[in-house]
Amino acid sequence: MKHVSTQWALDAEITVVLFAGLGGACEGLEDAGCPVHVACNHDPVAIAAHAANHPHTRHVTGDIFDVDPLEATGGRAVNVLWASPDCRDHSVAKGGAPRSARVRSLPWQVCRWVGKVRPRIVMMENVREIRGWGPLIAKRDRTTGRVVKLDGTVAARGERVPRHLQQLVRDKRRTGKSFRAFVRHLRQLGGEYEDRDLCCADFGVPTTRRRWFAVVRYDALPIAWPQRTHAPRDRAKSERLRPWVGAHTIIDWSIPMRSIFNRPRPLRPNTERRIAHGLRRYILENPRPFIMPITHTGAPRAYDTTEPLPTITGAHRGELSVVSAWMAQHNFTVDQGVVGTDLNDPLSTLTSRGTQQQLTAATLAHLRGTSQSADIEDPLPTVTSGGRHIACVGAFLTKYYGQGSQHQDAREPLHALTTLARFGVVGVEIGSASYAITDITMRMLDVREAAAAHELRLPTWVNIGGEIRPLTKTEGMRLVGNSVPKRMPSWLAGDVP
Fold this sequence. Notes:
The protein is α/β, with parallel strands linked by helices.
């Protein structure tokens, strides 16, 4: 293996990344010509993953409150300082859960670093809700008006609860006060500050992740923002931009899926309802399904349904599938039993032998939130650090020949579907042929597919405290959910000297 030297040129300014993890910011900065010299994080798993992907970087493991900027940088001049503070406490996904004053104060560490190392440029990324960052107050019981403690109990009459034992919530009367003070302090340090909300899909990334990006320049040069290159498919042509990159580009269609019927643990009604909604909207009523051959081990290729079908071979179980994917929001987490299938089950043949004169309509289900479905040709929704919120859903479509045909009559399997009223419509027209749904399958989104949505790579192994092992799926999803799609920092750093 080629050795990468960690020796720095003595006359070069360095790049520092705070809250480093999977390496999206680092890879993007390096693609823009800014090699990352120092990466900091308190999480040993995040540091181990970053070290595996970036062995040339000096890694500092420790609480950002305790890390000395001058010691971490060796007193070297800093060109770019990138920071993506923990966003969980600001995110709307947290809902009304108690807040952490310590986590919410993490952005102030950027000011401390700026004051000590005086970087030329500061770049930051976070959820858009950070603009509402403000003071916290004690949560109070609705009935008594008394303070609620961390253990969930209510303070006794006249009891004084120390702040560190209180459940803290946002003070709605002072929303945004801390954020405005933070921006004001960065400017008082001599910087020119600008921020924008950017959708990653507008820059060719296959995810609709929308985040707050801020740039502060202390070198007196103007701030340059990247111009969007992509737009939603229905507006791309009129705006003279490229269409959004679809989620289907990062899905591994060879991974098997399991039928949603006859499971040991049935799916929840809301899950079935949203599956039915997406099935109707993006498969049964979709005039242009997404066609993809699954022949043997060849590289997958896509075909527009307005063009003739590729050759249908005479293999024992056929070669083609129709893929018309969609995304549906749910508010629960699917078990590990979602992944995998028996090779004797219909959709399992997706990985090796195809299907017998069947068309497979594969889909995605976002197992969180309240939104409905979305087309597979649109980018992936935001991948959260919790992971395990996105599943692939597939519908088997069997060509209908009628009773008495040598092929299986599609009306037989439909009895299982009609037991659920929400799946009442089961026919679909593709060209001049009629098809009927014979099965619906689902699996969770694989962690490597999630990483591909951010154009990142997961390390094969990590070294955590001397233990060399692969990342678990939970660890991988958490790293992906906290990562920055690498193309965004690459665009932002495009004009860095």
